[in-house]
Amino acid sequence: MNILITGGAGYIGSHVTKQLLETSQHNITILDNLSTGSAKTLDTLREIRDFKFLQMDLNEFDTVCEVLKENHIDTIIHFAASIVVSESVENPLKYYMNNTVNTTNLIRCAVANDVKRFIFSSTAAVYGEPANLHETGIDEDYETSPINPYGMSKLMSERIIQDTALAHKDFKYVIFRYFNVAGTSHDLTIGECHDPETHLIPLVAKTALGKRDKIMIFGDDYKTIDGTNIRDYVHVLDLADAHIQAISYLENNRSDIFNCGYGRGFSVRDVVETMKQVTSTEFQVEIAPRRDGDPAILISDNRKIKSKMNWTPKYEDLALICESAYAWESRV
Question: What is the model's pTM?
Answer without folding.
Answer: 0.93
